[in-house]
Every structure is written in C-alpha cells, then in structure tokens.
Amino acid sequence: MRYQPVRGVLPSRLTISRRRTAGALLAAAALVATAVPASSALADTGTAASRPAGSRTLPYLNPKLPVPRRVSDLLGRMTLAEKIGQMTQAERGSVDADRTQITALALGSLLSGGGSTPTPNTPAAWADMIDGYQAHALSTRLHIPLLYGIDSVHGDGNLVGATIFPHNIGMGATRDPGLVREEEHITATETRATGPQWVFAPCVCVARDDRWGRTYESFGEDPALVQRMESAIDGFQGTRKKDLAKPDHVLATAKHYAGDGDTTYGTSTTNDYTIDRGVTSTSHQRFDAVDLAPYVTPVQAHHVGSIMPSYSSVQWTDVPGSEPVKMSASKELLTDVLKQKIGFDGFLISDWDAIAQLPGDFATQVRTSVNAGMDMFMQPYDAPQFEQTLTAEVRAGRVPMSRIDDAVSRILRAKFELGLFEHPYTDRTDIGTVGSPAHRAVARRAVAESQVLLKNDHHALPLKRSQRIYVAGANADDLGNQAGGWTVSWQGRSGNAIPGTTILQGIQKDAENVTYSADAAAPTSGYDVGIVVVGETPYAEGVGDVGTGGHTLNLSATDQANIDRVCSAITTCIVLDVAGRPQIITDQLPKTDGFVMSWLPGSEGEGVADVLFGKHPFTGRLPVTWPRSQAQEPINIGDAHYDPLFPYGFGLTAKH
Asked: What is the pTM of this model?
C-alpha cells in the first residue's frame, strides 16, 4: 500500500455536497449524541441506542438468522447511495475534522494510513477514536457499522507500544508456520483490542528480485515457502468463521494480487521507482506456478476474507500483441480467475488511490475497475467524488446494478461474520495485553529463529559471557533501523521511536564486558571479539527500490570501513546484517570469522543475542538466494545458471 502524508483538512475541491436536509442532519447528530457515552471510552453495548424501537425484528438485525439471509434482507432495503457508500473507504484524516461526513456519505469503511494516528498514540486513544467514528456510522438510516482497516504487517506497527515482530522475510527464514500463526494471533489480538477489525496483511507476494523495495514484505522467493507461511491467515482470522467475531481475531487481507514481486526491473512508471508497480511479463503457465499459487491456498485452505490487488501490471508473453494491464483493471484476473475459477467469495479492496493509475478520466477509471471486479475502493481523500462518479456511472447504465449488488453483498457478509452488527464498538478485554511481556517473548523467539548463520570459521560462535566484546555500527543500537518500514510511520524512521530492546542491549545483558562505538572510533585493543552491525536504514515500497534515492544492495561506505577497522584489529570478528534483503558482501566476507543475517528483527533485539550466546540454536535458513553481485539480480533457485554466494535454503548451525 502507498501512503502520502496525512492532511489535517480536506482540500477545498473535496467539499462535500450534503444530500440531506438540515433536519435530517440534526436528527443524525441527535442519534450520535445518544450513541456516544460521555465517558472517554465507549461501552460495547450494541447499537440499540441508535436504533428505533422495534428494529430488532428486522431480519438483518437478527443474529440467529444465517448470514446469507441477513445479507439478502439488508441489501434489499438499501438505496443506491447506501450501497455505493459501502463500497467506499476514506482515510481517517479526511473526515476527522468533520465526522458528520461519515454519516452523510454513508461510508462503509475507514482506514489509517502509515502514521495516521490519534493523539496521544495509545491503545485507549485508538479505541476511543474508532468508536467515535463508529457512532457516526451507526446514526445512518440502516445503522450499518464501519469496517476499520490498518496495516498490521509485522505487529500493529502504527501503535507505539505494540509488539513489533520481524518482517515477513525474517519469518520466512524460520520455516516455522506454527510460529507465524502465533505471531499473527498476537497481532490480531493487539489490533482488535484497540479498535481496528481488519488488517491489510499478510503480504503473500513471491520476491523474485531483491532490488525490489518491498522484498522484506515477502516470505521468500519460492511459492511453496510462501504457501507454507500462509498459516498467518489462520492467526489473524482463526480457523472457523465464527472465530472472526471474537475479540482476538481480525479480517485478513492477502496482498498484493498478483505478481507484484515478479515485476521486471526498469518497467515502473511511478515516480522514480525502478521495479515497484512495474510490469510482470510472463506466460500464463509461469504466472500460475509462481505468482498465482500463493492466492489459491489463502482462498481454498484458509478462506481469507479480503484480497488487495496490486499496483503492478501483467503482460502475457504467450498472447500475441499483449499490452500491460494494471491489476485493478483486469477482469480476466480479478473476476474470471480469482472469483470464478479459484472461488474467492470475500471482497476485493483496492490499494491506496490505485485507480488513479488507470488510463482515462476519473469516470473511466472508476467504471473500468468496478466492472473488472473491484468491490471496495480505497479513496483516501476523494470519497465524495468517487461516490458521485460511481452513482452517475450506474445511472447511465455503464456499471450494471448486478455488479454493485455483488460487491456490497461481499462487504456486508464480512461485517456480519465479524459480529459488527451485534458488537460495533471496541471490545477492550485484551487491551492490557498490548506489548505485554508474554507477547514480546514470542517476538523474541521469532527473532532468534529468524537468524541465519552464513559463516562460522574457527568456532567464532557461540560467544561466551566472559569474553571481552567490542561492538561497532549504528544498527547495533537503533530500534528504528531494527524495525524497518511500516513502523509508526509509512517509511519508518531511524532512532528509538518504539519501546523495545536493541541488539546492543541484548548483548550487554549476556556479556560482562562490552564496549560500544557506533563509528568504531574507540580503541580496539584488548578485546576478544569484535561485532560489527551493518545494514540498511528504513524505507518502504518503491522508495526502497535499488536505483531510487541512491539505494543499492551494497554495504554503505561507513559499514565497509567499520568492518575493515574492527576485523583487522580484533582476532575474532563477527558481522551482523540488519537489512530487509541480502546485501553484497562478497569482498567483506573473507575479512570476517562469522556472518549472521539478522533481517529486520523488530522490537526484540535480545532474540539476536540469544543465538549469538547459544541460548537458542541457529536454525534459520535463507528464504531468498544471496547474490555475489547486484548484477546477478534477479537470481532464484531453479535458474539455469545458478551461481550464488549462498544458495536458497542455506544456513549453518553454530557447530560448524
């Protein structure tokens, strides 16, 4: 998903044309007043306060009826405007200053983009904020609750204090589906306890080119590995439909359908990106095997509730004259393949303002994507324009009513299954578990299992508590760099923006004599072991593409200098790489005795120390191939001329 900085007010061009009388708005305001308790926290007492007497007799409000019956009954009562409202998702920043827009537009959904948070950024403030929005949604004629979405891609990353797990590439290194399921159950618990009922996760892309700025969002380069790790969906949603209504589960989103990790370098036309949002040039057979397979499993085995189509395009190499088609415009892939052939019965949510990248004027973009099969539209700051445009397209006969009814039915089904009509407000039962020691213990174990030992000459590892240790490198003591992108803000940021334990702090807890010098300027004499922590600084999406903003796969000059200085002066030298993808270390590797790929471990740096000191064995294996040079990319297992520095699946134990 792509986010822009959140704006505090709506641009003047988005001024809403209220299609309600002043009296109706006053009535709605009165309903909101009765629905919102005076206390800072809304009690989850259902929606009775905002419903007219006797409304419980309506079939769609009867929880004892089957969901399909409830959906059919509600759909039959809705106007076109109410239906299109359900298909519309706005960014909270566009309605926060005037929340009556939620009611006036009959909005079906809101989201928080990266960095779009309440003040203060606390669990209670999140729940209060979302419950406040919900009260406005419940004041509409039919009292249809909001569905609130957020990017909990490695924990509830927008919430300061949440447990932050390793990014997916590190979890792919664990080869542990049970651990991934447990991780996402914790993420679901922390997320729903603070308000959102829907997460835009997991990313089930197959990263085929490490130059991609989203490589760390992938579990790996092998579709079979990605499919194994889709146990994440069960962690989010549970394994039975009735689990969705529980306070420790959320609706999951498999993304980004399909082929976003398989685009060709240099084909992106977005900003100065080189690969993100580019073109996947492939045959139907290869597409099915590499890019589509990770979506069959979520639909048929895990019953994922929503899927987010990619910004990327597909161009068929086995179809003469094929031109690139954006996924948001592909009826072949959204409807014919995903919904009909694979059998997806959830709903499709567009990526952030994705239809703006389609050809034609706005009306053409809307019409094309709806008719292709998109169900809900993430229109962060132009929800009014979207609703007006889609209404006009339906009335002109260019979008059939059957397509609208199908989309809305899918969305309503999810809301019923989540139990939102019975319990629309936040169930705060688990709010005290956010960032709890028990949750952080699981994250620490995930970090330990994700570490991949690539070199261990002279039995450099495991370390001993009695050894005198010299630690260098900025990434040794920077929680922001450890966590990477999608942490507190879209791009993430360096510095200690979240609570947690840095790698350095973990080492200091396990060793008696530790000296830290970020730039390796402190004297190096008298030490038994040198540890140099190198790697990347945070980025997200195409901003991190190689070739964008100076990004390369090479170690920085500073990191290379730190390795040279420490490894030439201290007998035993170990390098840890904190990064979202393999970096080029061919020239530096011979200078080291040990080399560990630490990925982006998140908030629990002690997990790194656990394997360094032998508390936990090295069990991680590479989820992607490690290239000798950047020029080797793309390089993947199964290539005809496969000559990597380290092959896919490589990983030593500390006994080597």
From this structure: 0.93
